[in-house]
Amino acid sequence: MSRLIITESGPLKGKVRVSGAKNSVLPIIAASLLVDGRCTIDEIPYLNDVRIMCDLVKSLGASVEIFEDQTKLQINCRSLSTNTAPYELVNKMRASFLVAGPLLAKTGAACISLPGGCAIGTRPVDLHLKGFVALGATITQGHGYIEVKKNGRLKGGKVYLDFPSVGATENIMMAAVLADGTTTIENAAIEPEIVDLATYLTTMGADIKGAGTDTIKISGARELKAADHAIIPDRIEAGTYMVAAAITGGDVTIENVVTDHLKPVTAKLREAGIEVSEELTSIRVRGGNLKAVDIKTHPYPGFPTDMQSQMTSLMSIACGTSMVIETIFENRFMHVCELKRMGANIKIEGRSAIIEGCSKLTGAQVKATDLRSGAALILAGLVAEGTTEITDIDHIDRGYSRVDDKLRSLGANIIRTEE
Length: 419
Ligand code: UD1
Prior knowledge:
Structural class: alpha/beta
Radius of gyration: 21 Å
Shape: globular
Number of helices: 14
Mean pLDDT: 95
Bound molecules: uridine-diphosphate-N-acetylglucosamine
Distance between the termini: 5 Å
Number of strands: 24
Largest sheet: 4 strands, mixed
């Protein structure tokens, strides 16, 4: 089992380059199922989740070639052999459900293992299914699988999402691009990753209007063609390095970012007393006198839930009391128990964490319970007195490309041990 061992590090300094966005590359690999032909995807992050998504499309009959530097891949989905996404893969990564839309559109059916619960909440797929039904599909469920089916082409329809779900918006968009007629998604998610997926689909020949707004209109095409695409930078990875600079009182330039995508994080860090300066494609973060600030997570462009746990670590050493409210997922405070073991003073009340800052954190043996919790523990470990040992780091490798190498290049005392 691999571990990360971190000892108290001084202020981080230097430059770090952000990789392509995990939450873009996963739907974009799934979208490649829509065409017969070779698609090239650039700026691939080196992540376990990417490998799982590649294994999944390969299990459906696609061929995938990852180039030597690991940042580019080619997918050819000309000869799919099945439309069943098995439990072994869906169980490893919930985003596997994103193959449902493209499989349904391309082959007329998709049989996907139910994703099941995960550490941060129940995460149902009812909104994805509501969209498929609006396009004329029927849904059956049994033996742990969901089957979505449509004889003939899907028919464009109207769907209003009760919540602007990122995954549901993507799945419905991918199904609708080959439907007969126009589909309207209302109360759609407006995250930058939705726009990135729409850009890829448009390059394939799809007609999509309004991606990045809450109403998306898709006019179905009879056929799409293979396309090349470069993934946008990962705003959550960037945000995590911004907090790494802030928590250590460092001076770090984060390169390959879209500064607009980072606005909610930038605003909160500035409010907390951190100096943030934006350039065209980079952002410089200099630590300052940390002040407690309140945070409430919201869909984009609100404060991202994927940055909540990292900010909780930061607030545990900031002076004053802060309240962090999680509105997206019902069980996203798993990191708090581990942070408390490191000396943080945090109380959970329902969906709120009340943090008494100014704690001197102390290194401890802790466990990464999910991806962003793991990131929060790394950040805490950088400023904790002594040594922090993080287990279950496969969660961290799901979403952070070579995190130990990148942090070490900034002066962090972090090593990976393999047992
Ligand atoms: C995506 C991101 C994840 C991020 C999340 C919210 C990917 C691969 N993952 O996850 O990193 O934390 O957006 O920004 O892009 N919901 C339903 N029914 C559904 C679908 C969702 O009730 O059918 C609920 C969920 O339980 C959750 C909320 O909607 O409470 C948000 O989920 P959603 O936006 O769908 O997140 P994901 O796409 O799973």
